[in-house]
């Protein structure tokens, strides 16, 4: 009987904690085609909540030590997943970073950082 109560409690807690997770932000990099010193970056944002209160256009980008040469528009890749392509170059330094910021009224500020270093 106690095992059943613990199992039920664990399932309720797990279901209740699911909305605490923010959107999943991932980034992929590769060399820009035909450009020696430029890097292509693909940003992917997966909205965890079905009805995310934050519009994808409200996502902010910050660059430190990098210049964003080209910035595409957000495109819907599939349900709840959005994609943006960038081309960046390092600004005289050996490394730089891109920060993706989303401010959720329910969960607060979400900040993901991608560090890019010269090889």
Content of β-strand: over 45%
Poorly predicted regions: 15-19
Order of helices and strands: HEEEEEEEE
The count of domains is 1
CATH names the topology as Immunoglobulin-like
Structural class of the secondary structure composition? Answer: mainly beta
Our count of helices gives: 1
How many beta strands in the DSSP annotation? 8
Known CATH architecture: Sandwich
Per CATH, the class reads Mainly Beta
Reported for the largest beta sheet, the result is:
5 strands, antiparallel
Shape annotation? elongated
- Indicate the percent of residues in helices: 10-25%
State the end-to-end CA separation: 61 Å
According to CATH, the homologous superfamily is Immunoglobulins
As a whole number of angstroms, the C-alpha radius of gyration is 19 Å
Mean of pLDDT: 81
Outline the structure in words.
The chain has one helix at 2-17, and strands spanning 24-31, 38-46, 60-64, 66-71, 75-78, 81-90, 95-104, 108-117. The protein has 119 residues and is mainly beta. The termini are far apart. The strands form two sheets. Strands 1, 2, 4, 5 and 6 form a five-stranded antiparallel beta sheet that branches. A three-stranded antiparallel beta sheet has the order 3-7-8, with no helix packed on it. The chain is elongated and about 60 Å long. It has a single domain (21-117), classed as Sandwich (Immunoglobulin-like). The model is unreliable at 15-19 (pLDDT under 50).
Write the layout of secondary structure elements.
Elements: H1 2-17, E1 24-31, E2 38-46, E3 60-64, E4 66-71, E5 75-78, E6 81-90, E7 95-104, E8 108-117
């Amino acid at each position: 009987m106690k095992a059943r109560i613990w199992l039920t409690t664990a399932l309720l807690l797990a279901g209740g904690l699911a909305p605490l997770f923010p959107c999943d932000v991932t980034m992929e990099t590769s060399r820009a085609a035909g450009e020696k010193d430029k890097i292509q970056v693909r940003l992917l944002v997966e909205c965890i909540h079905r009805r995310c209160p934050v519009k994808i256009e409200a996502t902010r980008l910050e660059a430190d030590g990098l210049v964003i040469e080209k910035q595409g528009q957000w495109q819907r890749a599939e349900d709840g997943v959005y994609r943006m392509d960038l081309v960046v170059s390092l600004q005289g330094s050996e490394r730089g970073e891109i920060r993706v910021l989303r401010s959720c009224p329910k969960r607060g500020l979400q900040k993901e950082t991608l560090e890019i270093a010269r090889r």
